[in-house]
Each structure stands twice: as structure tokens, then as C-alpha cells.
């Protein structure tokens, strides 16, 4: 057996990631465009999980989605159905997609379609609902479902038509710009959302939708600085897929949480999840909430960190500390530290305050295990009970055992004697 | 004579500046809303100047404006008219307004109206034409005049109606946000323009203008990241007017250049200009231009520095160095140094990379003279010949003699023996 040149393999993987050009090409109905998504399947964030182990907000989102899909007539009925075994649950990540927080998606939801023209690969994500009481934080009230229906009936179709009336939007260039504008592109998306809004608005005007609907769509996008989160995530996933599944490669290509387990996947260990308990997020809570209200870490949004954004690019976004806590010096330090566990630097994503140094890119399982430094993630915090919603935002790390288990598996496969 | 407590007077002046709430309330026709603007009067940037001493780009803009106004049928005729004595020239600053670069404004141009509701005071500025061959850089070709007519006939009226269909836009809050998003709000306005675009787009849709015009207006605003410059300037002027004219106050309330002279005005020396030769800007030139092509420093846009933005807030905008030259460390240093010549720190305008320290606010004539530190300005560079346009951007300081002359005048008035 030829010895593996892991460093060279990882370098090639980083180059492959850098070559991807994620473009926003359209909107589709999830059931029509997401691979293997069927009517009785609920996609969710993080590694695989069964109903009985799901946390409150994930259960809440599942129940809300079943009512939204017309598979149940009420939340209690949805709860019985979800527990009955008639509904399947699978990770978004195994369907070329990602979902923020609970990350629940079902067949009739509209999804962004992000494409790399050269490879033809596509990734998907639902549209962002806004902050507060929203499905992705486990809320399922009539207000939440009414908004989801409006997103399906008005927002989705208007954006779909708008995107046919203009060229694809280069998301990599847009993210690169946003990093020059104080976004770290995970929990701060004000610049990216603004730049997206500028790109979309003229095309929205050119649709045949009634002016009232056009205005409502613009106001909805304008009201929510997190609109772009649901594009940075599939863009990040599309880039990282270029490293999957590559023999002998130790780069982490997925970090994702379902609110109970934190799971990672590694390029050289195809399709396998390595999990540990999702951590408690430390951060700033909205008034009226206490730490005991907080659900453990949840969501696929750590895909942004996996590609060098979010917690890895906090030096680009000093203002983020007002949302997730800590000081500006902390934000600088998080980015600096992440260079110790990554094998490359992004060509496209540059940190202005570090003299335009490329963001730390390519988390190396070996470096994480050698240094003991865990990836730095910033994230929203969901209430631990179904039906409540967001309670704050903060900072968290993956559990060490994900990396230890992955390393053990890597050694077992690649170093058999 | 009671001794002056200059420090207390300056503190009060800074407080007065901080209290101003500049809001974008509408669009008007300059001749109808700008005080004492008559048909044969051309407003310009900087201190007063006669035709014979005007630099190339200011002459170019004047000639273009005379043709645009129908006062001359051709550029040669405009040149003769401008030199004839039949046209009056006065600084924008003496008409409650400001103009970027040549800063030329005439009666039929649309202007933004910025208002402080509490005091009822208003300031004005023309709408930004975009980059390259534009009147404010001294270009006057048919392309330039056609654009100005479209701005008068379509852009102005659409924005005017849009602004009646929504509440006033709080420019101070918007600028404060932009500083958290990598703008220094003089030569980098990408975030501020994006935020403005988000505010305006839904209102533009609600106008009765044809969809084609609405789309063109959105695309025009979208295509020009400097759109907001023509709002940050009158907002800055409105704030600084609160310090004028205040007995014994040594705060600089105006820094402005006409391309020949740099002039300052001081709160305790009502209406007087103290001038010196406009400096050569050091910076990055567009391909094909050399230093000998560059006109000396020009424009009223240094009003942004006077209120703590632009060169004073470069630490908020590391990405600006790609446009004006220098390093990120330089940008940090410029801001740090400006605290040595200012008496206050902005409450609204915060520098994220300095742990949200307020921007240096209130340039003190005495501190400038004591320390020898000159205000740091960043600025666009015009070609020195009429008709060409912008050739680059860079950094410049005012001439020392403005401050020396102002100090001498201050001593003469306030310390007679």
C-alpha cells in the first residue's frame, strides 16, 4: 500500500473548494428539485436522529411542517403522526441541502437553488422566515404557518420569476464583498442581505406580480437582515462538497447539529457521521430569558464556519460582538486561532482588518486533534421548548469526541496495521 | 471683559452638534428650495472664487451647467458667458448646502432636502451622478448633460414622490450603521448606499411612475455606490451648523475646497473664510493617468471629515485603502491621530475596531495649531483639465496657513490687548 500524502491530498481538496463558483440560479419547490425528497419525508438539520431523541425546537418545527403540508390537521395530530413511524426523518445534508436551526423542510416549501456551473452541482435551502417566532426556531403558531403559506404562494413565485429576469447572482463575490462590510456571514448578514436586495429589486419590479405583492416581497426582504443566511449556507455546502469524498483527505466537510447531537463528516470517510452531544451556547439572551431556557446548539449553519466564515471570520465583523457577546479583541482572536486548525486560506474571502488575509479555510481533523483547538462557531439560540422561538445568540464549540471518533475511524481505515 | 471659557464653549458646541437629527425629508428643485438661489447664480464647492482663478474641473462644471440650464447653447458660448460678469458665483456653503468635487449647482437641478425637525433647519445637495465622466469632476459632454436632464425629468420626480410615500429617513442612524459596515462615509459609501436603497425601493414601487422608469431609477441607484455621498454631506453640514456662529468657539465648522483654494470657517468667526492653496492629493490613480494630470484638492466633501467621518473614521473602513491607498495600519493610525485635534467623540458614530469608541468630533483650531497635526482628508481626484473627469482617489491635508490665519483672526477679536 502506497503511503498517503495527506498534506498534498488536503491541499488539492482546498484547491477544489476554492474553484467552486456558487451562483444563485433560481427558486424551486423542494419536492420537485431536492433529490429523493418525498411527501412523507421531513428533512432536518444536523446528523440523523429519531423522533424520540429530538429536542423541543426540532419537534416543534416538525409538527408545524406537518400541519403546513396538510399531513396533520392540528399540532397534537402532528405529534402523534411524527411519533407513529409513518413519517421519515433524514438530514438535509444527505439531500444536497442545509437548513438553519431546526432546518426542517418538506416537499411543498420553496427553496433557493445554488449551482456551480462548471460541475453542474446544485445545493438547496429554504427561504429565511425572519427572526422571532419562526418555524426554524421551533415555533408553529398560526402566525408562523400563515407566513410559510405566504412564502410558498407569493414570495417564492415572485422571486422565482425575478430570477428568470436577470443573470445568476455570483454568491461568492457577494460574500467576499460582505466580508469587507462587517458581516462574518453567519450571524451578521446585514451587508450581504443589502447587496442581495440591490440585485433582486429591479428584477422583482419586472415580474408580472401585482405591485402590492412586489412591495410586500421587498418589504419582507428588507425587514430581515438574515435573508442571506439561507444563501450563504447552501453556497458554503456547494463549495465543501468539492472536497467530498476524497481518499485519505482529513478535511472536515460538514459540521451540523440537530439540537441533540453535534455531527461532523470528513472528506476521507464517505457519508459517515461522527457525533457527540450538542453543546450549550454561551452568549447574549433576549430580555426575559435565562440560560435554562436555552436549547443546546442546533442547525446546519455551522457549514459557514466549515468554509471559513462565521466564527472563523469574526475579525471581519467586530460589530457581531453586540449580538453574540464578547469583545472586539475576542473576535480578532477567534479568527487568528482558527488558522491553527486549517490547512489553507480562502482566496475569495478576505479579512480586511488582517490586511486582507484570506479566511482560515479547510478544517483539518488532524490539526484539531493535535492542537486540541476546537472550531469556533457563532450561532442563534433556540428556546428548548417547542413553539417558543429564538431566545438569543452566542458562541459554541463542537464536542471534542466527534473529532476523536473520526480520527479513530480514519486510523482504522487508512493505517490498518 | 469676562474671560472666555473656550473649553466649555467648545463642549457646548459639540453637544449641539450631537443633538442634530438629520432626516431625509424630500427632493426639491434647487431654485425653489435653496435660499437666495437665482437663475444667473452658479453655486460651487469651497470658498468664494472668481472665474479667472477657477481650476479646470470647476470651469468645466460651470460651463456644463450653463448649457444644461439653457443659459448658453454651447460650451464655447458658456465659457464666454461665465467670463462676462453676467453670471454670479457663490459657495454652496453660503446657501445652506454642499457640493461634492466641483460642487456646481444651478436653479433647475433637483436637490435632496435634509432637515432637523427640532430646529427646522434644512440643508441641500444635488443628486450623485455616478463615477467617471460626470459634471462634478468637470466633464460636460452630451452624455453628461443627457444624464443631468434625466436626473431632472425622471430620477428627481420619482424620488420626490417616493419620499412622500414613506416617513423621513433618519440619516444619522443610517450613517451610524454604515460605520459598522466598513464605510467611512466619504469615499466608501457602499453600505450606506445599500441601506438607503433598501429604504427607498418599496416606496419607489408605490409611485405612479411607469415601471420602466421605476426600474431605471433602481438600476441607477444600484449602479453607484456613491449615491449616499450626496446625503452624508448635507447631513454633516446640518450637524455642524448647530455650532455656528458661537462666540468664542474655536471649532472648525467648514473645510472646503474649490480646486484652487482650501478654505475653513470657524464657529467663533462668523462667515469668514480662511484660505490657503489647495493641496495635491496623494493616492491611487486610474490606469492611464499620471500625477501631472491631477487637479489640486477640490470639493465640499471634507464636511464629512469635519463631522468625524471620512479620513477621521478610516479605522472603521479598512477596505478603503484599496481605493485611496495606504495600509490598514495607516487607516487605523489616521483615526487615532485625529483624537489629538478634536474635543469630543461622536455618540452616534462609533468605530467598531476601536471597541466602538465614538468618532473624533469637533476639530479644535487651537489643538491643530498647538499640535501641528492637520486634519486627515480622503478624497476623489479630478483631472486638472475641464471635460475629463475623475482620475483617482487619495489622501490630503489642508494647508497649515488656513489655521494660522484663523488663529490670528481669533486672537485679534477675542484677545485685543
Structural commentary:
The structure is a homodimer of 417-residue chains. With 417 residues, chain A is α+β, with helices and mostly antiparallel strands. Chain A has 2 domains: 21-233, Enterococcus faecalis V583 domain (Enterococcus faecalis V583 fold), CATH 3.90.1710; 245-414, v583 fold. Chain A has helices at 6-19, 30-33, 56-68, 75-83, 142-164, 171-179, 190-205, 211-222, 229-241, 303-306, 321-324, 328-338, 365-371, 400-414, and strands at 22-29, 41-44, 88-91, 110-116, 121-126, 169-170, 252-258, 261-266, 274-277, 282-285, 298-299, 342-351, 357-363, 377-382, 390-396. In chain A, the strands form 5 sheets. A 4-stranded antiparallel sheet of chain A has the order 5-4-1-6. A 4-stranded antiparallel sheet of chain A has the order 9-8-7-11, with helices on both faces. A 3-stranded antiparallel sheet of chain A has the order 10-15-14. In chain A, 59% of the residues are buried. Chain A binds chain B through residues 177, 180-183, 190-191, 194-195, 197-199, 201-202, 205-206, 211, 214-215, 218-219, 222, 318-319, 327-329, 352-353, 355-356, and chain B through 177, 180-183, 190-191, 194-195, 197-199, 201-202, 205-206, 211, 214-215, 218-219, 222, 318-319, 327-329, 352-353, 355-356.
